[in-house]
Design brief:
13-stranded mixed β-sheet, 27% strand, 370 residues, Phage tail protein beta-alpha-beta fold, Jelly Rolls, three-stranded mixed β-sheet, globular, 18 strands, alpha+beta, 3 domains
Length: 370
């Protein structure tokens, strides 16, 4: 068997019995979680291997090597059958390669393209205008962060709240929150960790819906050209309503608790509450890394805590490794925004420890532990 540091393909993970045991029963007898944190670049391969195991629908208990090999072979046979079907379709196309069929195909292609253009351009513009409209109604003078990169970006708000903004998403927010409300505007997908302030409620306007919180963490997925809007709560409690209901002062809001979610169907303007997100395949399959990792640490090396944060927030942390080599911390950071997490860590290390943050780059300065 290869040494795990040499794993480069999904098959390497699937062939490892200790990896399969970890995925099936959560018994991490071989330190897979720690290894994944130490190798964040391979986290994607680990996740893909996990999805393969789920896709094979292999029973979880008392599996032998032969049984796993049979399951793997069955999966590869499915792939081969799909490839054969694709080749058969190509032969059919060759048979139909006549002028009459080409004309019919041209009509069909034109129709499909017309539908695609409408669905992805004109329909998207209708949804997109909702974001533009609610932003234009705000008189505070907003900043706008647009993520055109291929990885998440951290946005830190003036109240200390943090937003993990996904690619192809944008967030509008005031430089400083004024009055008795904190309002931000999202088009796309983002994970929010809101700084607690009971006297100043936090509102996320995500196209057609409004999510109200005091201090909690949750994810909203509201892309302009998709048919649904989703809200998933990790910690705390949120209240969701539609923009139309807010404007009409309606109190028909939906309350969501941890591990609950909501789907707003744009076509018929209805809400579908999900009381257990693990039972919804669409939502559970889209859960991000930051929602899966634990931020409860018991006598854990500081270096490992930093690696967890790097993996969760797609950031890079530069810290003095020699000075902090023997530092261990016991702390819970589950319900704090990223800036608060960093403050707690620095304070726990020692009074001579601080951090600076520039976008997705974080620098820790320290002379060592207390």
């Amino acid at each position: 068997m290869k040494e795990r540091n040499q794993y480069r393909e999904i098959e390497d993970f699937l062939a490892d019995e200790s990896f399969r045991l970890w995925m099936r029963s959560k018994k991490d007898v071989s330190g897979w979680e720690e290894w994944t944190l130490e190798h964040p670049r391979r986290a994607k391969l680990v996740e893909e291997a996990r999805l393969w195991l789920l896709a094979m629908k292999v029973p979880e208990d008392n599996l032998s090597e032969d049984e796993v090999d049979v399951a793997l072979q069955a999966t590869w046979m499915k792939i081969e059958r799909k490839e054969q079907d694709r080749k058969m379709e190509q032969k059919v196309i060759q048979i139909w390669n006549s002028s009459w069929f080409r004309k019919v195909a041209a009509v069909l292609v034109f129709g499909l393209l017309s539908f695609y253009v409408y669905d992805n351009y004109f329909a998207a513009r209708d949804y997109y205008s909702v974001y533009e409209q609610v932003v234009s109604d705000d008189n505070e003078g907003l900043l706008e962060q647009i993520n055109n990169s291929n990885k998440p970006q951290i946005v830190t708000l003036s109240d200390g709240s943090s937003v993990l903004l996904q690619p192809k998403s944008k967030l509008s927010y005031p430089k400083i929150f004024k009055g008795n409300e904190r309002n931000v505007y999202l088009s796309g997908e983002a994970f929010f960790e809101v700084s607690k302030n009971p006297k100043k409620a936090f509102f996320v306007h995500a196209n057609e819906i409004v999510t109200k919180v005091v201090g909690t963490s949750f994810r909203i997925k509201a892309y302009a050209n998709q048919s649904n809007v989703e809200v998933v709560v990790r910690t705390g409690k949120v209240k969701v309503n539609s923009e139309k209901a807010i404007r009409k002062a309606s109190d028909k809001e939906i309350i969501l608790l941890p591990n609950q979610g909501l789907r707003f169907v744009r076509k018929n303007q209805t809400f579908d509450k999900i009381t257990d997100i693990t039972l919804d395949k669409t939502i559970s399959s889209s859960v991000g890394t930051i929602e899966q990792l634990s931020f409860d640490f018991t006598d854990i090396p500081v270096a490992q805590i930093f690696k967890t944060i790097e993996l969760a927030y797609s950031v890079e942390i530069d810290f003095p490794k020699r000075e902090l080599e023997k530092c261990h911390l016991t702390t819970s950071l589950s319900d704090q925004p990223l800036p608060e997490k960093l403050k707690i860590i620095c304070k726990s290390i020692g009074e001579n420890t601080s951090y600076t943050m520039n976008g997705n780059q974080i620098i820790i300065t320290s002379k060592g532990c207390n």
